[in-house]
Amino acid sequence: MADDGEKIDPALGSLKHDIRNQLSNITLCVEQLKFELPDQTEDIAFYIETIAAGCKKINELLKSTD
Amino acid sequence: MKNILIVDDEVNTALLLSKFLTRNGFEVSTASNGSSAMEQLKNGAYDLVLCDFRLEDTDGREMLKSIKSQYPKTGVIIITGYSDIKMAVELIKMGAYDYITKPLYPDEILNTINKAIETHHALVTEPQEELAAVSSTKSSKEKQVMAGDFVVGKSKASKELLRQIELVAPTTYSVIILGESGTGKESVAKSIHLNSPRRDQPFIAMDCGSLTKELAQSEFFGHEKGSFTGALYTKIGHFEMANGGTLFLDEVGNLSYDIQAALLRTVQERKVKRIGSTKEIDLDVRIIVATNENLMDGIQKGKFREDLYHRFNEFTIYMPPLRERGGDIMLMAEHFLKIANKELGRDVQYFSPDVEESFVNYRWTGNIRELKNVIRRATLLTEGDTVQAKALPLEISNYTKIAPLVEHSHSHHGSESSSAPAKEHTHNRSDLKNAALEAEYDTILKVLREVNFNKTRAAEILNIDRKTLYNKMKAINLGK
To answer: What's the pTM?
Structure first.
């Protein structure tokens, strides 16, 4: 999986690894935010959902290069 | 309150994980490198360590080794950005409960951690089979069929085995693995799991042979605290632990009829209830069972339920006994030799030709497990670089002489063979002594076959002691 990316292009593999690290942090932050903001306004809820969706999309993009 | 130690050199990640886990009811500490982690472990008791694979002063592997050797009760989960199955399998073999890849998802983390802690508590009294890896593992799409330390053989029988595993693994079929004791059934079950879509879920192995009637219900279905005398805490049953993943039942033929009925219901309804609870838990478990006896016989004798058998038997895999695996025997012998050398700090490299001959002709009733033990013992006893016949147990080194006596009428699948092999070996003397010897020989041979060449049991049945049996067997040789 990640091996294929690395075999074809080690720079790509390395980049993916770093991106995944950052994604990890962002995903955990989103989770914590949801907890920290129980009374979310509609806008706040939208922003949080968009961040979460963005992360999901980025991960799919990464997977598609596997 | 469960204690978790997070080891990660990325400050933000460690902090985020800590806050997340604290919020979910855990007591969390963090360390940013290997040495401070070991310091913390010294000063506090932790249930679990979540360790990043890449650390500034060491790596996940080394940490795992240190933690497992000094704090065996502490579970270890390794976090990494690499999806490398060889690494994953190795880590699991070395004792890691599991392996999570980044990016980290909250539910996945919680799930894995909870399962690690529950499994650790529930299984702490069950000795795991040496031959296979423990719990679940992550795998990549890379084709790695066999789990753990299973030596992939080159014989026709091995190739067929591999083919069957690859065929059935991706399906949801329940599998019966049929094979003699020590042929690696658990390894095969684990491999099926790893090649299935459930590979990232738990693999739970149960030894039904060691279950007492009383414990069996509790082990399978779990119980609520206080549901009966002695139920001091809530126990998660193995079905629940395996939920989403694969449940492997070894020696399933040993289960009592009542438990079989309960199992059948659970498997049919796909729901489980803990003893003392009314809550039904939905189950999604893939079942693999193993037995070393022909279940059909058990059914005819009324010991095993036919309906349960049909539930399990969506696919059957036959494990070839070691003696039928030809060239694989030496391949495995060499593999175990390497392992034993490492363990004992030796450098034994070769097998003498007569040792090889013994190995190839011996019956190996204990199959791979027996071979492994024989090699370990031989490595210990060998002073030079070559294993000699004297380092082998008598029954094996003697086998070259007995072999023609015993094997000539042995049919390939170990079924009952013809009754009067002695006729070939008589010298046409019709004196009484010879007649007696012949009769003895025939009886001994018959009994030996019935007990799969287990000399202790044979001696019991023949009503002589083991030493006498040995001597008689030797005497039979000498007479030829």
So the answer is: 0.48
